[in-house]
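dumping this here so i dont lose it
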């Protein structure tokens, strides 16, 4: 027996997807209402898994084959000198080569997707693409791993488009029966808590690699008011617009993906130097996940008047393969937690504004929710919301000013924070590095901006249901033009999508009625007017 029999081994993403899909069907599928909208919604959530598996499988294939090529190249370079010394004279070598050709010897078969040294030399002279992925290695866009990733993004965009339409037509669905989970509340709470422990164990036992720590080291220089070279600035921009100091938190892998093959583990000294940032990243990722789960439960308790539905929604979120894969990615889960808690705090516009401002400062993309949210608070609370958001943003800007070595460095960080640059056409990731023309981002971006601005006037009266649904639609539409692996940032919209799937009728829950406790006072007044028994 090689290992201790009770040692914990992380579940592979594909296995997690199979098991979680069956569990979601068993716990939430309404077999007595087979053609209900709830069952369709559940199937849409489950159908997100194949796209993620294709992307992760493609990355693993690319990593493995690139690793084999690199090892073969190193072995060939090490053996080149002894082989050259052992080669026969030129005339004899030519004779041997001609005999070998005449004999019709078959060439040594190469692993699929790899290139012989001659082919690599030819490809280096005429590369098939200018995009660099997999650690800077040029790869053939027709290789199996790249095709899998491209199909995965196509799959995610297709299911995402259906979800986007579902969010837009949701206000028209007036019949909304309360369909609770199939499991009792006690079992649901126990099951959800157990899932959280599994996910947090994955974070606790994971160790980041040199590539995961690269952005953190550059952010440490900014925190120490040191200048960052051009390569370091490019690494800080690699995750897209957002708060540069949040690069202090390295990516914590939730499982051993194929990308780890391309990465080298940091030495002990470097790992010790970054240990506090690694601990902070793990703690922040766990705290963000806890906030998402609590936010879902509390939102359903205070707005749906149903604690069991909130526990069920949280359990679905924890079961999703996406959650298991990206558990430790702070830039995925922290903005999602801030947006969710801003929605939860809608009865206190200034608190909602502060949380909204923090979410915008962290990841930039929530700024496109501004027309929708101001329109929601227009009748009551709009100035408190705007002031709260400005206070949070100004505090974050002040921190950047304090940590900048000079005004030029401060301006550079401010550019990254708010995306003050023309739409980038180089150095992109995700689908844009897999064969899509980068110029398609421009019309998609223009259509997206018009889409967001339209929510300022439509619909004319917004309730909390439309705020949640259309916020999910905006963050989902971001994925289509996001230049840095857009499509996989599903935490930005999945909690809100789940809330819409299970929501009751919320027609009267507008800001005019809810902000400031007007509805509560009206309810108390109505109770006082009732005759006492």
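and the seq i came up w/
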């Amino acid at each position: 027996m090689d290992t201790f029999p009770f040692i914990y081994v992380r579940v592979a993403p594909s296995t997690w997807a199979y098991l979680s899909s069956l569990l979601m069907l068993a716990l939430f599928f309404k077999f007595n209402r087979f053609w209900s909208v709830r069952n369709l919604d559940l199937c849409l959530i489950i159908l997100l898994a194949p796209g993620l598996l294709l992307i992760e499988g493609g990355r693993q294939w690319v990593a493995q084959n690139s690793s084999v090529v690199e090892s073969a190249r190193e072995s060939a370079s090490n053996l080149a000198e002894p082989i050259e010394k052992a080669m026969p004279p030129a005339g004899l070598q030519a004779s041997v080569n001609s005999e070998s050709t005449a004999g019709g010897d078959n060439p040594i078969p190469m692993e699929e997707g790899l290139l012989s040294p001659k082919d690599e030399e030819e490809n280096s002279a005429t590369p098939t693409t200018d995009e660099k992925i997999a650690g800077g290695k040029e790869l053939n866009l027709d290789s199996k791993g790249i095709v899998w990733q491209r199909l995965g993004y196509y799959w995610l965009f297709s299911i995402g488009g259906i979800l986007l339409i579902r969010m837009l037509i949701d206000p028209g669905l007036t019949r909304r029966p309360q369909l609770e989970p199939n499991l009792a509340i006690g079992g649901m709470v126990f099951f959800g808590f157990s899932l959280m422990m599994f996910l947090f164990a994955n974070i606790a036992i994971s160790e980041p690699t040199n590539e995961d720590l690269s952005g953190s080291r550059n952010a440490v220089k900014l925190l120490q008011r040191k200048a960052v070279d051009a390569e370091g600035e490019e690494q800080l921009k690699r995750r897209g617009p957002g708060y540069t100091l949040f690069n202090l938190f390295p990516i914590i892998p939730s499982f051993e993906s194929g990308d780890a093959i391309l990465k080298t583990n940091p030495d002990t000294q470097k790992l010790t130097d970054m240990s506090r940032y690694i601990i902070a990243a793990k703690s922040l990722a766990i705290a963000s996940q806890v906030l998402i789960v609590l936010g879902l439960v509390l939102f359903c308790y205070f707005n749906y008047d149903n604690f069991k539905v909130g526990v069920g929604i949280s359990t679905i979120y924890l079961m999703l393969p996406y959650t298991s894969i990206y558990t430790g990615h702070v830039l995925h889960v922290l903005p999602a937690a801030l947006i969710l808690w801003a929605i939860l705090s809608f009865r206190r516009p200034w608190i909602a504004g502060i949380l909204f401002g923090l979410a915008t400062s962290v990841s930039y993309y929530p700024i496109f929710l501004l027309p929708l949210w101001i329109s929601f608070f227009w009748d009551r609370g709009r100035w408190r919301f705007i002031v709260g958001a400005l206070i949070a943003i100004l505090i974050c800007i002040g921190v950047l000013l304090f940590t900048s070595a000079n005004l030029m460095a401060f301006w550079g960080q401010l550019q990254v924070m708010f995306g003050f640059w023309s739409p980038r056409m180089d150095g992109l990731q995700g689908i844009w590095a897999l064969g899509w023309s980068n110029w398609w981002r421009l019309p998609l971006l223009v259509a997206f901006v018009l889409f967001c601005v339209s929510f300022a006037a439509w619909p004319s009266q917004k309730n909390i249901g439309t705020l949640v649904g259309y916020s999910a639609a905006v963050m989902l539409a971001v994925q289509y033009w996001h230049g840095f692996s857009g499509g996989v940032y599903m935490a930005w919209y999945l909690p809100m999508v789940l809330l819409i799937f299970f929501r009751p009728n919320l027609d009267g829950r507008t800001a005019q009625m809810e902000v400031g406790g007007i509805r509560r006072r009206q309810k108390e007044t109505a109770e006082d007017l009732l005759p006492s028994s």
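Residues 89-137, 257-269 have pLDDT under 50 and may be disordered.
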